[in-house]
Write the C-alpha cells for this entry.
Amino acid sequence: MASQTTLSAAKPIDETRPAPVPAAHEDTSYFNRELSWLSFNERVLAEACNEQYPLLERLRFLSISGSNLDEFMMIRVAGLVGQAQRGIDKPAIDGRSPSQQLTAIREQLAMLSERQQDIWRDLHDRLAESDIHIADEQRVSRAAHEWLEAFFLEEILPVITPQALDPAHPFPFIQNEGMGLLFTLSRDVDKEQIIEMILIPSALPRFVRVPSEASDPGEAIYISIASLVQRYAKKLFPGFTIEGDGLFRVLRDSDIEIEEEAEDLVRTFRSAIQRRRRGQVIQLELEDDFDPHAEAILLEQLGVHEAAVIKTDGMIGIDGLAEICSEDRPDLKFDSYSPRYPERIREHDGDAFSAIREKDIIIHHPYESFEVVVDFIRQAAADPDVVAIKQTLYRAGSQSNVINALIEAAEAGISVTAVVELKARFDEEQNLKWATKLERAGVQVIYGFTDWKTHAKCAMVVRREDDGFRTYCHFGTGNYHPVTAKIYTDLSFFTADPKLGRDAAKMFNFVTGYVEPTGLELISIAPLNLREQLYARIDNEIANAGRGLPAAIWMKANQITDKGMIDRLYAASDAGVSVELLCRGICCLRPGVPGLSENIRVKSIIGRFLEHSRIYAFANGKPMPSPEAAVFISSADLMGRNLDRRVESLIPILNRTVHDQVLQQVLLANMLDTEQSWWLHGDGSYSRVEAAKVEGAKPFNCHRYFMTNPSLSGRGGALEAGGVPKLSLRRGRAG
C-alpha cells in the first residue's frame, strides 16, 4: 500500500535576507531578475552552513556559490554596465533602470561577499579540526618547508615572470579570472622604490598539497600558489627589500555578441572568443591591506571605477576551494552513489532498440545511469541496419563518449548529422573543437541559426527493419554531457512513436535547412508555437475553473522570468486555478499576493543534486494528480530567451506508464520534499520549508527517496520500497 504524505503550508524558519525595499517607479507585480538570482545564490550559500552535510560537501557549496557569483558578474552585471555606459534606460520587468539595478546589486553583493568570507572562516577552522589545513603557514614543518622550497624553485619559478611597473615597461594584460601579486620593493643600494607585478599562470593549480611524507601522519596541508610566491619572494628579488605585497583578481565582461550578418559563423566565433578574453574589467578583488599606491596603479591601468572594487580580509577567488574537495576523505563527503542501469534495457539483454520498440521508456538521471543514452548511440553506430543518426549537441563536455560514438557511426558509413551549438556560453571553444573533429570523421555538422541558440535535446536514429524504416528518438531535458549527468536531475525519454519521429525529423529540417515545419502532430517547438501551446493549456485550466471543474497547474522549471507567462499564471490564479511552481533559480513571479497571485505557491529545491528537469502538468478537468492530466517534458525554461530566441522542444507524455512515472513519481516527490526546499514569499524573501505538522507526516527528501528506490524505468509497476507517496494539498499561504 502506498504511504500517505501530506503537504501543507510551511512556517518560515530561516529568512536568508531582509525583504527588498521597492525602488522608485518599481512595478511591484514582479521581482527583479538579477536580485532574484542573488537570492538563489544565497540559498546555495546557505547549504554551506547545513549541519546535516559533511564538511567537504559544505566546502563544495561555498565554492559553487563563488563560481556562480563570478559568472553573474561576467555576464549579467557586465551587461547592465554596458547598458548604463551606452545610456540605455530600458527598464527591467520590475521597472528598474540598468543604473538602479546596479545600485541594488552592489548592495546585495557586499553582503553576500561578506557572508561568504564568514562561512569560509568557519569551515576553515572546522576542517582544521578534521586534519585538513588550508593555506595554513603555521603548519609548515621543516620537512614541509624543504619540500615547498624545492617545489617553488622547480615548478613555479620557471613559469612566473616578475615585471616592473614603470614607464619603461608596458602594463601587462591580465586575463579574465586572472590572479596576480603586486610587490612594493626598495633597492638595497639606493633605497629606490619599485613596484613589481607577478601574474599567476592559469595553468597552475590554485593550491599545492604537501605530500604525506613531509607532514604529520593523517594530516592534509594545502597552501595556495600565491602564498608560496609570497613566501619565497626573496628568491625572486635578490638585492631588494620587500616592503609589502598584495593579491588581486580580475573579472572581465565575458559575454559574446554576434552580428546577425556574420558570413562565417565559425570564424566569427573564434574571433569573438579572443575578444572576450580582453573584455572590459567588471570587478577587481583586492586584499584589504593592499598598498594604496599599488592599488591606484591598478585602478588607473585597468580603467576600473572604485565601485567595481571589492576588498576582503579573507580568501580571494572562493571558487578555487573546489580543488580541496577532491581530498580523499570519504568520511567528510556524501556517501558514494552509483546510478542504476535501467532494468527495462537489461530485460532485453542490453538491446536498447528492442526495449524501446516494446514500450516507451523514461530515464531519471542521475539516479539512473547516463550510460544508457551513450549506449543508444553506440548501438546505433554498430548496427548495420541503422541508416541515419541526427543529434543536437549543446554542451557535451571535454570527454564525450557520445561524440566518439557519432564519429564511429560516420566512419562505419552511417549518415550522421550533428547540430553543434556554437553559442553555448563558456563552451564555445570546446564545441568548436568537437565540430572540427566530427567534420574530419565525415559527420555533417550544422551550426543552426545565427541569432537563435539550438537548445532542444534530441537524438534521432532511423533503422531499417522488416516492416520498413522505423525512427527511434531520445528527448532530454538536459545536455548530452557525461559530467553534469551525474549531478543534474534530468529526464531522458526514449520512444519509437511514429508521430514523435516525424515531428523530430521536421525539427531537424527546421534547424539544418530553415524549413519551417507544418503539420506538427505532437511536438511544440520554440520559437514557433511552444509559447502558444503553454498559453493554451493555461487558458484551458482557466476555462475549467470557470465551469466548476478541478483546475490546477504544476510546473517545474529552473527559471521563471517571462512577463507574458507570468501574467498568464496570474490570470489563472485570479480565476481560481491552483498553481504550484517548482523553480530552483530565478523567479520574477510574486506569489501569494491577494488579488494578484493568492493561488500561486513557489518552492525552490537546493540539495545534493541540481534540479534541472523541466516538467509542465495541467489538471485537464480532473483532480491532480490523475491519469487524465496533460503532462509535458521540455528543454525550455519559462524565460523570454527560451520561448522566443531559442529552438526548444515541448514533448507530450502520452504513454500511460511513463505519464504516471513523470507526474506521480518525479514531479510529486519534488512537491513533497520538505528537507531541501524553500518557500518564496510575496515580499521576495525565502524561508526553509518545515515538515508538515499533520498526523502521520514525516520529513521527506526527494533526492534520498530516488537514490534508495528502484528504477523508474523498471517493469512499469509501483515502486517497491514503500510505494509512491500520495499528495494531499492543503491550500494556504506558504508561511
Observations:
- The radius of gyration is 27 Å.
